[in-house]
Amino acid sequence: MSKLTLKEMAAHFKVSVSTVSKAIHDSYEISEELKAKIQKFAKENHYRPNKVALNLLNRSTKSIGVVIPNILNYFFVQVLFGIEKVANDRGYSIISCISNHSLEKEVITLELLNSGSVDGLILSSVFTESQIEKHAEHIKELLGEQIPLVLFDRVTELIDCDKVIVDDFEAGYKAAKYLVDTGCKTIAVVTPMKNTQIGRLRIEGYKKALKERDLPFDDTLILSIGKKDDLEFLLSFILNSKKIDGIMALDEITAVKVMSIAKSRGYHVPNDIAIIGFTNGQLSKYVTPALTIVSQHGAYIGETCANLLIDRIENKNAPKPFETKVVKTSLIVRDSTKKQ
Amino acid sequence: MSKLTLKEMAAHFKVSVSTVSKAIHDSYEISEELKAKIQKFAKENHYRPNKVALNLLNRSTKSIGVVIPNILNYFFVQVLFGIEKVANDRGYSIISCISNHSLEKEVITLELLNSGSVDGLILSSVFTESQIEKHAEHIKELLGEQIPLVLFDRVTELIDCDKVIVDDFEAGYKAAKYLVDTGCKTIAVVTPMKNTQIGRLRIEGYKKALKERDLPFDDTLILSIGKKDDLEFLLSFILNSKKIDGIMALDEITAVKVMSIAKSRGYHVPNDIAIIGFTNGQLSKYVTPALTIVSQHGAYIGETCANLLIDRIENKNAPKPFETKVVKTSLIVRDSTKKQ
DNA sequence: GTGAAAGCGCTAACAT
DNA sequence: ATGTTAGCGCTTTCAC
Predict the structure, then answer these.
(1) Order of strands, edge to edge, in the sheet holding A93-98?
(2) Which nucleotide is nearest to A55 (CA to C1')?
(3) pTM here?
């Protein structure tokens, strides 16, 4: 049994398609008797208006595409959650796609979505700093400014659109300042975000905090780890060569791993080494000791993206200048750092 | 600048729409010269065929809807991951919706998806055992067997479709048996899944394990917690009244919380109280001590669902009888239980 | 080599 | 009160 259409019902009742359509919509133009018959039949046979046909007619799908790098990362899950909430409230559904940290997959996904299937796009691109220029061209090429786009997290001035970003400089500063203020002198940074603007900004913030207290910046304390690198090995090396008393890890899972390594090597956290992570997920709360972290307010970022996008979709005729919203971070102090 | 259509290009080149369509598809019918001109123009102006129109024409959207209760639960994230992987490999995209544990939202979502926007549906329904009958009717009513459906995790015989389930009875048995085998005599169960078949099956498995060793079943040891209940308060009560030496918690986050409460009350895990959780997420690995858990192989479940669904979508004409696939669980032994 | 026409399922303006 | 027509963007068959 396939889907019931107006046409089939029209044939069944020997009336025209438009009559059936009107009957279904309870139009005053149709006699009560016919309406009743048709509506009853429609209900009994589970008639559903074909949304694809309506989308074509209305040149709108009431859905938005979301492309994120990774769904196993709590930050993105929170963003998605925020988007979903606002989108649903405002009558949109979301099509979510995972680029899995692959530029190629991201492009394929964008290509897929940019063909009338969605009214707008929310994207956290996975480019690194060296790829920005080329990739920005690619995205512009792809979308041709035909469809509203909101960029979040990893953004670039090369693409002209609405953006939602975290104040990563301030976040890095806040975290490092807290470590310095609680007595740390030699602070290492562990970043899983090689060559990204976000990582760089957080490190700039860290430098500022050091400078304010006249602590020297030592770039051998910056440990950049790739997907295949052995964190334990690399971290141990630094731990052996310097007297580290603080570590800033640029995402949640890295922070947890760093803490686990430090503990297993006999350091007391936070007394020997204080640790600060990023992203307020479930992990940091339940790990022992509970992790002090910088929260980026993922859900709020998602809500902001969705509102920005839907506003633009619904005001396509009266376009406003593009906005970049900066969401502030908060330091959530728990037990992996010393008290102030 | 809006989306470029064939019609517009036809007007621009003063040819017919069908000519442009053929040119775009590089048809042998069109002169090389015209093809080159049109293709160049299309490329420069970022022409994308309108997918909605194609979907209407093909009566297929090459996308599948996924409805899950919660995206902040690692099990579902893993399932989604598995679905996404297979779907993409087989040329489908996924529309994911979160029912947020609300039956009402689930119904609205199904309604939304069942209107031509997707070719098939994967659903983990949120009904409790008392709601099954009514809700099954509702779902059948809604979908009217017009669209392929795969149910996973929480299923019911009342709906005739493909299903993927976990052997929850065996999972409960395995977990309890391990506790018993490592010396536990008084094992409490903490379940956040009030009145679900899954919870009940796991508890049946637990009973079987007790029985095999002639341990008595005591239903005051079963602690069912609702969303608003104070786990710490309720658990403390049981801990005070009985000499508990093992706890089985039916999801990951509950297991972590239970362990945290036990530790804070001075129990040593696993020596005083051994703990087993369910769902192999990030939490259980990094918590101290690392949690012994029952893995449901979420990603594999997702892959199985997607394959089952797409097979059915693509063989609508030659329907096979419905299948129910049972995915076995594995016990992953870590440090929250004693060694065997 | 190019175009006209029909149709996917639906709605809406315009007849009758 | 009911029907006809046109059109959303596209493909495909059949004419010319």
Answers:
(1) A93-98, A63-68, A120-123, A149-152, A162-166, A324-327
(2) D8
(3) 0.91
